[in-house]
Amino acid sequence: MKDKKDDESTASGVSRRQLVKYAGVGATFVAASPLAASSAAADSGDGRPGGGSRGRVWRAGDHHVHSEYSGSFDTSVNPPRFQKGGDAVYPIVTNAIMAKNFGLTWAMCTDHGGPNHSKVNLEQAYPDLLRSRELVPEVLQFWGMELDAPALDHHTLMIPHHRDEAQQLYELERRFAKQEAFPKDPGRDTEAKMIEFLKAAKTMRQKPLVIAHHASRSATGLGVYGQDTPREFRNGNNAAPDIYVGFEGAPGHQAGPLVGEARGSYGNYPTHGGFDQMTARVGGLWDALLGEGRRWWITATSDSHVHWTRGGSDFWPGEYSKTYVHARQDYADIMDGLRNGRIWVGTGDLITTLDLTATGQRRSAAMGENLTLSRRNRTDVEIEIRFRPLAGKNANGDRPEVNRVDLIVGGITGPSSNLDSDTNPTTKVVARFGRRDWRRDGHEYVIRHTLRNVESDVYARVRGTSTDEAEPLADGQESPWDDLWFYSNPVFVQVR
Q1: Which of 45, 150, 270, 490 is least buried, going by the fewest C-beta atoms within 10 A?
Q2: C-alpha 484: how far from its chain's center?
Q3: What average pLDDT is seen over the chain?
Q4: Does the bond joining 480 to the residue before it have cis omega, within 30 degrees of 0?
Q5: What residue stretch is flagged as signal peptide (predicted)?
Q6: pLDDT digits (tens, 9 = 90+) for 75-84
Q7: CA distance 149 to 146
């Protein structure tokens, strides 16, 4: 006899029976709260100061998700034989269903490359993506891959949604992925090849996006970098500033401590509060890049391969980490938001909206935007921070609370003569706000702070936490659910 519970809808609107049908054998269902799911497109008010457009709200997504097409290769034969499920195990549609369940409205399939993998993507994975788009239309599903980037660790290669998207990825992967050639070609694994790739991408009418993954995973100490270095980020961003736009602030594999592994799979030098050292250290590399005036953004992803309850170290897309983009539910606008820094990131659904605005001389700007002031008069800049806490329970069944919010400000001094520089000594936490320092405005909390007599270029960014740590501490085996943070991207202030 059929169990009545099988036909009950989950928070995603998909029945458990449908979930089993579409997700395939081995998928684990974890119910998200309706409040967490609805937070994906939470309205941040009547439009953002500084240029919010009609229909734009905060939409949660994930640009780093693996499917069964992150497989293995039998190189004993020529051409190498591809086998599905060698690294990640879930069908593309399973990831889309779970993304929807955990409140995402956009996501991206980013499978590993390998010898002749461009044909696998074109002939096998892409048709499955098209079917997944039909089955789960509520989630905008971007096409792309986790590029085995020349001379670097993995990167998102996000292709714009258009008629020839599959061919565009095929051409870029075939020409530039360092693992594509068989036998291996050392000439593909050079920084010069990476620059060639970025310049080729820049000339395309449909411009892709490139974002570095787990940038310090191979670092052996604080400021002792591995595959990805400050020099390479600067050179790549110089070559294609509208293509190569950032790195993961919070890498995936955040469930590691739940199975006795390092958070984020950072086995050499740990994450701090779940965030990469390049982001977490105030005045560190991210601030050094922002201090040059670079539009360099951070994101947060799941890097989902296998769920932690099934032997992996991962959460489902959206279960723990979310990248929020201020956009319409439209492929082009979400990609525009990612390209232009209309982004904030969070873990554990600590909050569901975050707005940061700077106002001066009757002008305003928000995250990713630029406030231009006249030098004729010394000007105070009013900073407003608005956030909405989660009203219900997160995916762990907790009701997280914000304990503190920090306002971080740094000077913009122009390009550094030292391409290896990873510090910005002007960057400081200028104010810390506790629960007594914010006031309620409807469903949101509001914090205001004045930057006095702003005479030179600066940027401001925000972070917040559920913890009492003054600075995010190096991660050990604590549960990731007990160590929640959110980070904004910056707003820039120029004095002219």
Answers
A1: 45
A2: 16
A3: 92
A4: no
A5: none
A6: 999 999 999 9
A7: 8
Closest by CA position to 43, among listed 326, 322, 320: 326
Residue recorded with tokens 């806490």 = 389
Q: From CA 425, how far away is CA 423, in angstroms rounded?
A: 6
Looking at residue 378, what is its pLDDT? 73
Query: Of 155, 125, 136, 289, which is closest to residue 215 (Cα–Cα)?
Result: 155
The one-letter code for the residue type at 223 is G
Examine the pLDDT at 383 and tell me if it is beyond 50: yes
Cβ contact 140:65 at 8 Å: no
pTM value > 0.85: yes
First and final CA of the chain: distance in angstroms? 74
Domain boundaries, the chain: 4-495
Phi then psi dihedrals of residue 281, to 5 deg: -80, 115
